[in-house]
What does this fold into?
Amino acid sequence: MRRLAVSILALFAIAVPALAQEEPPARVGRVSFLSGQLGFHAAGETQWSAAAINYPVATGGSFWTDPQSRAEIRIGAQTIDLSNDTEVDITRLNQQVMQITVPQGRINLHLRNLPEGNTVEIDIPRGGVWLLQPGIYDIAAGTQDQPSRIAVFEGSARFVGGPIDLGIKTGDAAVISGWDTLTATLERATPDAFVEWSRSRDYHEQRLAAPYYVSPAMTGYEELDEYGAWGSAPDYGEVWYPNSVPAGWAPYREGHWVWIDPWGWTWVDDAPWGFAPFHYGRWAFIGQRWGWIPGRFVPQPVYAPALVAFIGIGPAVGWFPLGPNEVYWPSYTRNPAYIRNLNIANVSEARIRNFTTATGNRPTASPPPQVVNQSFANRGAATVVPVQTFTNAAKVAPAALHVAPQTLQQAPVSARPPQVTPTAARVAPAQPAAAPAAAAPGAHPAGASTVTAPAGAPGAHPPGVSSATAPPGAPGAHPPGATVPSAATPTPPAAAPAAPSHPAAALPPPHPAAAPAAPPHPAAVFAPPPHQAPPPAAPPHPAAAPAAPPHPAGAPAAPPHGGPPGKGEPKQDEPK
It folds into this structure.
């Protein structure tokens, strides 16, 4: 890796994520549990890498468990458990649509809510499964030799594939057999070890205080009660305090940076609770401890890669958490609606409008001067590391440099992350012979037909992405011949002030290093049959839309949350 220029200007002006006027994804999930190894690759990649807890899950991502592993993904309030030897491709994820492809293996999905107009679609080699109500579903993709199986423990679902259009109600399991010609039978849904393990991982939303303060659509909210406590603070409103952090701890210090499109540099925190407080809200140092301030209640909060500002100190990289009423200015888009929605919970409407108006006629992508001229209450709590720690996805805390407080206060601030090229930012896991080939996420088996959606339909599929054929009456059904809409981000409310600072501090130069590239991923096995069009008529799609929880000024104390759920050893998981 070539030595980086010492100049601050060079450090912050190399390459940026593609700057877009459209809104980036607002809804993002996370890897919430891992037993063994979880591989992942992003759209366009050809090799698998190792995913860690809190790794973001978004459109275009593919995840795979090896034969001895299990994993869990949470997207807001929804939970997806992956059995061993399972691949999951996130075909489409936005505020209205969750479309997932399971080319092989088995998932268990707990759908806690399904607002009106939203769709959840699970595509397997033999067809598509639409989840019609909140509930608990177990779906095995099957193989050429083994049938596909769709069990409904709570809720209702619908399978469409080939000539089959089948409703599945609570307590039933559909067994889909055949390859060139499909047949379907219904039997009783019976839980096995994998289903029981998935339920042991569940949390009980009614026992949580967090939904009184933040929306359940905020990914990672369910960890807050177990690992911290809520309180009120003058000027800030409701504040969440982590229970135990090491002496000298500051936000965005225990974790690492990775490059993820379309956002660019993204923070991945080490703490089990470290998703929501680092991708939403703001931090303040209150009464000698750090508190996370979610801000105003927003039903559909917008994900950010890291709510920090950066500082330039020679060839090193530094950053600090933004405080209340400090505007986050993304480097990856100039879309004013997105910038508003990203900040509205923690910054006043008038302040956001002042910033976005200032950028309206600017010829460059650089933020308006107001962004870097903010007061920045938390600048003294900056973390500074050598550049190669940042670019190599290395753990930050052990590499943090001691920098004099005066140097931190005088360092120039940038809204953009340092525009340095990631080196081998990820390490590929060991890959058994059965590992699936890294392919385009959401791609359907060879020969599968694609049906596109009318503009504005919630379940529309992006251009070029194949989809299982939808039941004609279901939301997300895709009549032939139409194109795809882009998802709109709902608009939220307004917000809070600023906080005191926290110290930190001489500075050895970095020592660049380049990690080796991950080995290629062995190619796999998959040649399923074509999907066929569904029959012309189908019953309507019932949707269940639970109301968002109230957001009172002071929430009642929540009943005890209990210890973490059991995490039994994984076994080969075959549905009964």
Notes: The radius of gyration is 24 Å. Residues 1-20, 425-434, 439-572 have pLDDT under 50 and may be disordered. The chain is about 10% helix and 25% strand.
